[in-house]
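Posting here for the record, re: pyridoxal-5'-phosphate.
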Amino acid sequence: MGVGNVPVSGIIPGPQHGTDKLITNFASVNLLNLQRREDVMDCLVDATRQYGLGSGGTRVIQGITPAHVDMEQTVAEYLGKEAAISFATGTVANIGFVNAMASTQQFMAGVAMVNRDVVFVYDRDAHWSLWKAAEGLKFGERLFSFPHNSVEGLEEVLKKLKGKRVVVVIESVYSIDGTVPAMHEMVDVCEKYGALSYVDDANGFLVYGPAHRKFHKEYEGMRRATFIMVSMKKAVGLEGGLIAGPKDAIDSFELISGASSFTAGVLAPAAAGTAYITKLLAYREPEIVDDYLAKVADFRKKMLDVELPITDTETCFTSVVVGDERKCVELYNAYLEEGIRVPPYLYPAARRGGAVLRIILNAGHTDEQIDHFIDVSKRFLAEKKL
Ligand SMILES: Cc1ncc(COP(=O)(O)O)c(C=O)c1O
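Prediction output follows.
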């Protein structure tokens, strides 16, 4: 069908893609194109020379670098949390979190962590990595779900679980439909029923939060959650995952998550780069994000002007709603023939029969590239391909 052929690209990920011939790329989640900045690349290269690439072992055994310490402190402070711990990717962070909170581990006589009674309550549209992390938990016994973004649905489930130790798992910006939940209300319900809350903020980290940007209120609500997870793949544009929260819990994750003791962590240059970029976007040059969001708003208007059926949300995660999986792959191929890469998201990334083409604007896209996408889409609409 055309999606099995993994594309090969010989340049830094971003607005274009390819080897000999470059095409316009709307697939990269490296939203801000920061690796192309000289200062960011210098930071990555300097850290590589200082620390190397290979870690030499897991963080529990071999330890971490000052770059990791700086990153974890910087991100924890930015998110308003006491401490943070990093993992190789956001997926590993999610797996480590659920493992830590769900398992019972006996370290030696008299020293154990007993979490066999903890139950998890997920938003139905939670990311694949979160569902994967909970695969070993029996649905209906230790794992429950509620309708997407429904505060009432969450409350109904929590009411039935009264008396149990509960962890509620939601996201800040859902990447397929681009929605942001009513975060204050979600956290209010968690607090009312004594549940811990875990927000996967892979998509909105460093993009949303400040008072002058959209979704400030929701992000203030998110800061009230017990734990916040971020991925460095999106706005930061590198690789890694990080969980921020209360210091005693974060410290315990070193041992009980399994993901710090049995696998490699964030590469040191990525840790140095994440600390650098977090300070850059949060404090030194927040206008990078403001300019990007203004560009997203213009792009969104252009798509609406030609009546593209896009998701009804103003986050930077925009999708063209297609529905049928086969049609979605055909459209992907049709755009490719026009020199545009717009990735199809099918089950299990999207719901069955809910396939979308996800369009991620990159800060480096030119007006010509954007207008070309709009012109091609307009033609596809007229030809009833869309
Ligand atoms: C909501 C959400 N959580 C987790 C992840 C996984 O992050 P990573 O790619 O760092 O493993 C993603 C990645 O796209 C995501 O969108």
